[in-house]
Structures are given as C-alpha cells and as structure tokens.
Amino acid sequence: MADKSKIGKEYPPFTWEVEKGKIKELVQAIGDKNPIFQDREAATAAGYKDIVASPTYITVPMNWSNQLMGMIKDLQINFLKVLHGEEGYEYFGEIHPGDILTGKAKVADIQTKSGKTGEMDLIKIEINYTNQEGKPVLKANSLIVERK
Amino acid sequence: MNKDIYFEDVNIGDSIPTLVKEPVTKLQFVKYAGASGDFNPLHTDDDIGKMAGIGGVIAHGMLIMGFVGQAVTNWIPKKNLKKLNVRFAGMTKPGDTISVTGKVVDKNAENNIITCEVFAKDQNEQVKIQGSFEAKLPKKN
Question: For a disulfide at A105, which of A16, A127, B21, B37, Cβ 3.0-4.6 Å?
C-alpha cells in the first residue's frame, strides 16, 4: 500500500543533459521518421533553433535518472503490483540537445479506489522541468496504479 | 514535413490523419527499453511474461504513447502541441498492428486552441490508448 503520509512530498531536484543521440534512439525505437527529431537542418528549416525532443522524450530522463524507481521505493509501493495508468504532458517550450533540464517531482495525490478486480491505490506524480535558463519547458503527470 | 495548418481550416468533427504502424516486434521492445531506460523485464523477457500470466512479453505503454505522439506531430507541428494526455487501456503483444486515429472535439476561438481525442487500437479494434491533445494553431490573419 502506498504511504499516504507522503501526499504533497517534494523530492530533491535532479538534472539531466539532453543529448541528440538519445533523442534519435527513442524516435528510431518508435519508428518516428519526422526529421526534426534527428536532423538539425530539417529542424531549422521547420523554424526550430536545433533538433527538438519528440513528444514523449521526457520519459528518458525520468527513467535514466532512476527518479521513478526511487519514488516507488520511498512510497513503499510494491513494484510487482504496479501498472502505468495514465501519462500526460504539458509543453511550455522546446527541448534541444545540450539543454540541461532540472526536474522537480512531487506526490500530487494518493487515493484508494475499489474497482472490478478489488482495491487499488492511485498515485499521482507531477514532475516540473525547467531548462538551464530557468524557463519551464514541460510538466509531466503520471498516474501509477498499485493493485492490492 | 508538416504543412501549415491554420485554426480556421480545422472544424469540430474533422478526423486527424490515421497513422498505421508496422506490427510491433520483440526486437522493437528491446530497442525501446534501451532508448527509454525502462528495463522492466515484462517487456523483454518472455519467461517473466509467462510467470506474470500474460503468456509472454508485452509492449511498453510508453512505446504506444510514442506512436500517438508520432501521429499527432505528423499532423500538427511539434511547436503547436501544448498538451498530450493518455490513459493506458490494454496490453500490446508482439505482432499487433497499431493504428492511431483521432478527431477534433473542440475549438476555442479566444486562444486558438483545438482539442482532439485520440485512440491507439490494434488490428482487432482493441483499444490500447485513449487520450487527448491540445494544439495552439496560427490564424490566417
């Protein structure tokens, strides 16, 4: 069971340097051939200052910085019972190679609900990302489901 | 890649262009694990999938969300995309062919934002993702 005393808890900021190679790896795994995610000339021709991160790129720093796993442990959630329920992004600006992102994660809510398959905890996590200029670039909202 | 799409050109009820993906493969799940950093073995190790009672590996939900992002930014320039929200509704298995469809459900003339619903479904019309996105479109004048 998720630890409800941690609703509202904010975690120490983490940083992540954006690399074009990781953007490329992700879109190649997805099979997304839009050149603005891989080719600087195509991106600038489309009005961007450089290659841009694809819509779901932010999952890369979230996973590789072990942010989510650390929170799951801290919240005493049983990883074997976890499902990814929802994911949502708000975009405030583009993310480019070379950017240094700072993410600040927060436990927005934890609720217990009873569904068809029994009780479950719904854990809402928010991560706000700013870039090296201190500008907000993205807000990620994740809903993690812990089945009982 | 994108043609300019103006707020005036988009109407409630319009469909967004459908994206039909190649069938997903186990190799793709391995690539996605490495790229995204999500190494949950449920996506790469058939034995773990069998132990979990689902017969074998399943796709990362985020891979299918990646398909949705691809469909959206094939239609709308990335810079116009303001929000993308999905609910994961079903498991995707190797060999499944995912199609992403969607339509415009709202237009707000005060801020030039359109709201669309979006779905990722397999070859049997089983829903994998139900979601929505918002895009701020330029006006013609």
Answer: A127
